[in-house]
Design goal:
By secondary structure, this protein is of the alpha/beta class. It is about 30% helix and about 30% strand. The strands form 3 sheets. Strands 1-16-17-15-14-11-12-13 form an 8-stranded mixed β-sheet, with helices on both faces. A 7-stranded mixed β-sheet has the order 4-3-2-5-6-7-8, covered by helices on one side. The model has no long low-confidence stretch (mean pLDDT about 95).
């Protein structure tokens, strides 16, 4: 993992540059002025990973500049990471002085939440034994955090293999399980602003919602309360299981979740071929008015993009404004951008999240 160039004095200027870049990318589509949602200047990142670098008998948390894995940046703290991560870093470092925990440990990952939960993943170049498990249990109790140990062919869990988060949208608090190793939004404060924006942009509906790439149900939970019923899709088994648990934990019963990729759902809706995973799901019973998409950096493939054209409203969250612009170009003849937003998930980097609402012309 590379280290962002942390300089709070430059934050406002960098955010202005990102806004100008988004405006330029969306200018061909006559998009309105973007709503801009800033980030805390420090302690905003809820997850991070470090390599360990040996100097003599000592090992340190380390990061590297992109393309350079020979010259580490050694760290005692990490100002962009959550306060919880910064509290855990020195205490974990003291813990790996125990050979049962420190021997052939090469990577550490932290996953925390705004709600205060924490999980630490320790990765090894050796098998994990009973001595490791006993030491990890003692360390977990001291740190107040779950621990997952990983080595080739092994995954040992002390505590839970997920953290619990809480997000409040329109006065309702939603609880989320966020599994170890699965994608979660790194910037919790900005993630909350994204949920608020998407909830408001969707508005109350008397028809149905289709969601592609639903992950652990991050957006599914609040958006489902705006629709008559919802069909959500996700391909990752880990994320599907988390989403199902999150729906149950929050008492949301108007969502059907199927483990299909966006491409497979496109084939199903186009009646190209049947899928056993859709057994018992009557696709024709849905009156879809809105499709919500939060695709990977590559954006939507052309066929999925064509699928979204069928819907009156397309609510699109993007982690890559270039592929967002390319997808809008494909849809621009039938849909217009009526709202757009910039979410600064990744301060001090060129990366940004954006959102658009497209409505049929």
């Amino acid at each position: 993992m590379s280290r962002p160039h942390f300089d709070p004095a430059q934050y406002d200027a960098q955010l202005s540059e990102k806004r100008a870049r988004l405006v330029e990318l969306l200018a061909p589509f006559d998009a309105p002025e973007p709503e801009v949602f800033d980030s805390p200047r420090e302690h905003y990142r809820l997850r991070t990973e470090f390599r360990l670098w040996r100097e003599g008998e000592n090992r340190h948390y380390a990061m590297f500049e992109p393309g350079d894995n020979r010259n580490p940046i050694l760290l005692d703290d990490f100002p962009i990471a959550s306060k919880r991560i910064n509290e855990l870093m020195p205490n974990l470092k003291a813990g790996w002085a125990d050979p049962a925990l420190g021997f052939k440990l090469f990577q550490v990952e932290f996953l925390t939440t705004l709600a205060g939960d924490a999980l630490i993943t320790l990765a090894y170049h050796r098998p994990l034994d009973d001595a490791w498990l006993a030491a990890a249990e003692a360390l977990s109790a001291r740190l107040g955090a779950s621990i997952v140990g990983r080595s080739r062919g092994q995954r040992l869990v002390v505590g839970r293999d997920y953290v619990e988060e809480e997000m409040t949208v329109a006065g309702r608090t939603f609880r989320y399980r966020q599994p170890e190793g699965a994608f979660t939004q790194p910037n919790g404060v900005v993630a909350g602003k994204m949920l608020d924006w998407a909830y408001e942009a969707m508005g109350p509906r008397d028809d149905d919602l289709l969601e592609l790439y639903c992950g652990n149900g991050n957006f599914t939970l609040p958006l489902a309360t705006r629709a008559r019923k919802a069909l959500a899709t996700e391909i990752s088994k880990t994320s599907v299981n988390a989403a199902l648990a999150n729906l149950a934990d929050n008492g949301i019963d108007n969502v059907t979740l199927v483990r299909l990729s966006a491409e497979e759902l496109t084939q199903a809706l186009n009646e190209v071929r049947p899928f056993r995973r859709l057994a018992g799901v009557d696709l024709k019973s849905y009156d879809f008015g809105t499709v919500f998409v939060d695709p990977p950096r590559a954006g939507m493939d052309p066929d999925t993009c064509e699928l979204t054209r069928r819907f009156e409203r397309i609510l699109y969250i993007s982690c890559n404004p270039e592929t967002l612009a390319a997808n809008i170009a494909q849809l621009h003849d039938t849909h217009r951008v009526t709202r757009c937003a910039l979410f600064d998930q990744f301060p001090y980097t060129h990366h940004m999240e954006s959102g658009v609402l497209l409505e049929r012309r």
